[in-house]
Target: Helix-hairpin-helix domain-containing protein
Amino acid sequence: MPKYLDRAAVVQLEDLPNIGKAGAADLRRIGIQNPGQLVGQSPLQMYDTLCAKTGARHDPCVIDVFMSAVRYMEGAEALPWWSYTAERKRLLKSG
Model:
């Protein structure tokens, strides 16, 4: 069984589905040091914080990645980040 299917094995940010070195660095940049800190976070606010801290507008797909990580830590199935693209587009359109 891949380790990301067992949340007990997710101890570092890089252990999360869809999170590699760059994604983990982005999370650390916004104050997320471990996977448990993702529970209850708003992926849209996380994205806004990242853009503010780096002084750059990041690709909106970063929101999808953040959504996948937050939802996974909140108990959702591990899904590819692009599974959240349609939801992100709806959220941004309604926001």
Observations:
- The helical segments are 21-29, 43-54, 61-73, 85-94.
- The domain at 3-94 is CATH 1.10.150 (DNA polymerase; domain 1).
